Structure prediction request, 442 residues.
Amino acid sequence: MSQLTVRPGAPLRGEVGVPGDKSISHRALLLGAIASGVSHVEGFLPAADCLATLRTIQSLGIELEPAGPTSFQIMGRGLHGLHEPQDVLNCSRSGTTLRLLAGILAGQPFSSVLSGEDQLRRRPMRRIVEPLRQMGATILGRDGGRLPPLAIRGGELTGIEYSLPVASAQVKSALLLAGLYAAGPMTLHVPGPARDHTERLLAAMGCDVGYQVPDARYPLPDTQSLELQPPARLAPLDLTIPGDFSSAAFLAVAASLVPGSEMTVTGVGINPTRSGLLDVLRSMGARLSLDGEHQAGGEPVADLAVQHAHLRGMEIGGPTVVRMIDEFPILAVAATQAEGETLVRDAAELRVKETNRIATAVEQLRRLGAGIEAQADGFVVRGPTLLTGARVHSRGDHRLAMALVVAGLIAQGETVIDDVDCIADSFPGFVETLLKLGANLR
Ligand code: S3P
Prediction:
């Protein structure tokens, strides 16, 4: 329940890194657990969400051997080597842990129960429960399977052709993971270019998974159709995880907004299914450049250099939304400083994240004087506004907490952000990184 106090101050300058990608860290653990042999992982994100995944795979009988602060070996037991857990699997506050693990557990010939903290037990699960039931898993949950805890009795799955009702990487991944255990292929139609880390890792492990029209993948199509053939085994991973774009996003916006800033974040993953914010910030007039682009761990990586700039408002909707789904709290802060109106639409999914991010971002940024209003499927911001320091609350949402810290860097006077421990869910070292860049906070 700790607190941060932020004041506007010096420009943000220097070169920093960000911790490993959260989505890829979860997937490395889960896929390493069911690989045949020892996987080597470097650049793992030791954040609360990923540590929840780590503990769940240990409860399923997987051993890990540390090899450094963010590197280890995972002793994979093969597709059929997991053990029935002796207790409820605690996913803490991590939706990715619960939903992806449910996909694997749907294929296991044993029973398991997935649960977690209040915040997670409010998040919608029917989106995975229904298709996993269609595949043959038995799943019980509160309110007919809408809410966790989920009790899963897996095994004997069939591959299905399924159109996802939401463009969600978690749902897509849960079904691909269940598909590893199905008799027959899986075909998924996803209504938007949701992040594709699971497909990339599975392909690197020798699994036959791909887009039905591979050449149509770039430019990213509005609907992704992909097919997975269940493999006999998965080869172990040898993986270096890139820096998390979603963490770098807070620094990039901070440097864009604080006058005189000039900063570089090194080694950031720039997978096009994740980096929609770059396109949006560029269209808003941000001064961004990508240097030293290369591939690492099957993902595009670059150094992201950002300078202060005057931003213009714009409209954001359609397929761009899923490509920046975690970046809307910080986009809202950027929009308060942009000239004119920023309209976000087609983003109703924001209502079922760690918090209802439309409601919580609007409520908290208004306390600082922002001209922001909620809409059914997004929000509208009229700028630029001179923000004024005030007392705000993260509502237990890590991304809202960090967005409010960045808002505090440009607000007049002192901004106090309550309940900032949640920042450790995705970006341990966030405060230290801002201090290193010259920010004024304690
Ligand atoms: C994630 C997918 C997204 C994202 C979340 C991580 C993933 O969730 O918001 O932070 O790792 O697959 P949805 O699939 O619910 O959009």
